[in-house]
């Protein structure tokens, strides 16, 4: 499959068209659309325009397809990176909710990408969103603990880093201390 041309990418920048294409049931079409969005999300000038489409992009996870999940997490991470924390705040809590099921995905790349993105999203939340985000963070603690034992080292490391971030977010000093030490049994006791 050839890379999209600049003309194709410009055509893809139309929000109404993108929303319609992201709702398609055709996996090959969806794969192509997401591939184009990955390229657009890598450019700072177009990534910011994709912020409002992130809920639709995350909606493609319903297909439980590894390739689609990889592209979805990559798009979300690129957009969050280019937006910065201030502009990413409105979508942070919703995005975090949709990432939790990916922690146990069959693909280690998807697991690692979703855990790292979850950490980034947590760091983007401001004080008035913390109450809503706190519930999501608590729901992520046990899956993150389990993933610290993942056979893929990068997933285990990402989980440990995310647990430290969760502990900071929740202001649980003992959990933070144990997560930094990577003491799984002690972390279990904290939870």
From TrEMBL:
UniProt organism field? Bambusicola thoracicus (Chinese bamboo-partridge)
| Membrane-traversing stretches | none
Q: What is this protein called?
A: Maestro/Maestro-like HEAT-repeats domain-containing protein
User: What are the Maestro/Maestro-like HEAT-repeats domain coordinates in residue numbering?
Assistant: 18-180
Q: Which GO terms describe its cellular component?
A: cytoplasm
Domain of life where this protein originates: Eukaryota
Output the Gene3D superfamilies linked to this UniProt entry: Leucine-rich Repeat Variant (1.25.10.10)
Pfam hit, one: HEAT_MROH2B_C
